[in-house]
Amino acid sequence: MLPLLLAALANVIGFGVIVPLLPFYAGTAGATPQQVAWLFASFSLAQFLTAPLWGRLSDRVGRKPVILISFAGSAAAYIWLANAGGLTEIFAARILGGVMNGWLVTSQAYIADTTAPDQRARGMGLIGAAFGVGFVVGPALGGYLVGGASPNFQLPILVAAGGSMVALTVALVGIREPVRHERSSTARVRLQDVTATAPIFAVMLGLHFCLFFVFSGMESVFALWCERILGMGPRQVGYYLAFAGLCSVFVQGWLVGRLVGWFGEPLVFSLAVFCLAGGLAILPTTDVRLMLLPPLALLSVGFGLANPSLLSMMSSAAPDAIRGGALGLSQSAASLGRILGPAWGGFAFAALGVSWPFFSGALVLGPVLVLSFILLKRFQRAG
Which of 100, 129, 144, 279 has CB 3.0 to 4.6 Å from 253, enough for a Cys bridge? Predict the structure, then answer.
């Protein structure tokens, strides 16, 4: 698993390098704020449409080939982005990047293939921890490389391409294809197991969508809320987000594996939803900067526990022969949440009040918590 995690870390650092620079880079091509928002949404939309296809392809041809193709395609997308001749090409390059982001769902399927059920949540958490480290290191590196008075956007974007190339090299040398399931068992699995697990898997997809809808909606307006209520600027917001990122790395890299080992995925997921709802309810009541730390910690703990434990349950519910395709559907649900969540967060912030993106998220999580108790109990580990 270590080569996969190192490859994921290199690729995510590259992704993190360009995320804070992208609005300014698009601005040099004449993008309006609305077009910048659509630029970010276009990546998630492309991922939403293609993730199940990548997952299903990995079921058929293997995990490693799809991971390699995805990393190579990501590098190509960054190189195109660095040399884009206008806003249309910037959009096209980011859409290509979203299409080629199939490494994530395939990596999740790889972990599900190569870990015991009681270690699966830990493995999913380690992928999440790689994202956390990448989003701490990447933006700092990008800010350093872009420079000051005369920003050089091409250099950090090419460094991001280098991150994907490093990931490609590590994956090529270090990753071994998991043992695949025999073709002869595929029809039987589809006919019997898919029918039996489809209802609970559909519920899990809904829960996955809700998690990302709520969390992305919160993220999209957090900086605006901090500016409006606490008078904070970008640097101060960045410090608090770095704290949240460090909490997430700790939770996904270490804590989730321990808790799932002790209590099982369903109970950990329910605890995570409770933490998320509590963080969302408490945060908008804060009027002192330092008091942001407890709700941010709750949010980081909640999301850091919820996503790996739910992915672990989804991988267990999916028949082995179509696990990649099933996890691709989960990634599409997450991408749809990333598209609709910020749209709702922005609307609620402007139309209902600055605190309502948080309060409404807590309300959404109420039914999610009930479902986690009722419908996920069957996945409690025996003993």
Answer: 129
pTM above 0.70, yes or no: yes
From CA 335, how far away is CA 344, in angstroms rounded?
Answer: 14
pLDDT digits (tens, 9 = 90+) for 138-152: 888 888 888 777 889
CATH number of 1-174: 1.20.1250.20
Least confident segment among 55-69, 124-138, 272-286: 124-138
**CA 126 to chain centroid:** 12
pLDDT at 183 > cutoff 60: no
Looking at the predicted structure, is the pLDDT value of residue 377 above 70? no
355 three-state secondary structure: coil
Res. 84: pLDDT tops 70: yes
* Topology of the domain covering 190-383: Growth Hormone; Chain: A; (1.20.1250)
C-alpha atoms less than 13 angstroms from C-alpha of 266 in its C-beta half-sphere:
16
3-state secondary structure string across 201-229: HHHHHHHHHHHHHHHHHHHHHHHHHHHHH
Q: Say what angle helices 2-18 and 154-174 make with each other, to 10 degrees.
A: 170
- The domain ranges of the chain are 1-174, 190-383
Provide the terminal-to-terminal Cα distance of the chain, rounded to the nearest Å.
27
